[in-house]
Amino acid sequence: MRKLFAILMLAVGLAGAAPVLAEEKAASAAEAAAPAAVVAAAAAEAAPAAAPVPNKGDTAWMTVATVLVILMTIPGLAMFYGGLVRAKNMLSVLMQVFVIFSLISVLWALYGYTLAFGGGGAFYGGLDKLFLKGITVDSVAATFSKGVVISELTFIAFQATFAAITCALIVGAFAERMKFSAVLLFSVIWFTFAYLPMAHMVWYWDGPDAITDAASLEKVTAAAGWLWAKGALDFAGGTVVHINAGVAGLVGAYLVGKRVGYGKESMAPHSLTTTMIGASLLWVGWFGFNAGSNLEATGTAALAFLNTLVATGAATLSWTLAEWLLKGKPSMLGSASGAVAGLVAITPACGFVGPMGAIVIGLVAGAVCLWGVNGLKKLLGADDALDVFGVHGVGGIVGAILTGVFVSPDLGGTGVYDYVANKVGEFNMGAQIVSQLWGVGTAIVWSGVVSFVAFKIVDLTIGLRVPEEEEREGLDITSHGESAYHY
Question: Helical H runs in 208-329?
Answer without folding.
Answer: 214-223, 226-229, 244-256, 272-291, 299-327
